[in-house]
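Collaborator request log, item 7. Partner lab (contact: R.S.) asked for a structural prediction of Sugar phosphate isomerase/epimerase to inform their binding assays.
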Amino acid sequence: MNRRTFVKSAGALSAAALVPLTGFSAARKPKFKMGLQLFTIRDAMAKDPVSTLKQVKALGYRDTEIYGYDGAKGTYYGMKAADFKKLLNDLQLTATSGHYDFSSYFNQPMDTLLGYLDQCIEGAKVIDAKYITWPWLAPDYRTPDNFKALADKLNQMGERVQSAGLGFAYHNHDFEFAPHNGVKGYDIILSETDPQLVKLQMDMYWVVRSSNSTPAELIAANPGRYVMWHIKDMDKVTQDYSELGNGSIDYIKMLSTIDADALEYYYLEQGGNFATNSMQSIADSAAYFKKHLQRYL
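Returned to partner:
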């Protein structure tokens, strides 16, 4: 339905018939704003977040995902949440999700974890974020029993976040797909968390590299859960990160066929292994994405 083009005259119809279908796809307004996980440019954000975000805007990004919130101080990148929100507004940017340091509280009493979560909720509301995301589990905790404990924590946290009017999600890496005595942490998360309380943020790179399932298969098996995606490419030789278009993941095939019905936000990301530097990386990935991939989202 999004591909329909209405014409005002037979002449316009004849002209349109000469344009390839991909021309319509590339020309139509994207459904989603092109997002960036700011961890990609953490070095630049640490030095000068204001000028860095101005460059992010100039490259065509319109949405961001934050990291590094200081709950005790209520600051993002050294700025009070309200000041950071003003900066976003001035640049006409949004920050729809955030990665928060929940793993550091994994072995703390639940009340302590929930106390930190309340700080994150407060910050997220100030910047008008829609999701709070658990991004990482430290290596010491990656056992089947701990994944079961994690699932319980995620359910409790999801209920608290939902009560505050926000969404809650879990972000995968590779370790969730590694079997421990035949048990995979990701299977525990999928089966023992409430789909209404705990949504999922799919890191497509890690799914392709480490899972026995494809992104499309995971989405089909868990309808309504994958509300956010991380999109990054994989080096053809080392399998490390790479700028979009330079790697081995066929995102044209993937994004042109994948079910995006549950998708709300996506973020381009590259954690390291930059061809030149982080800012050039997000420029190169943005250029490739806008030319070849944005038509599908």
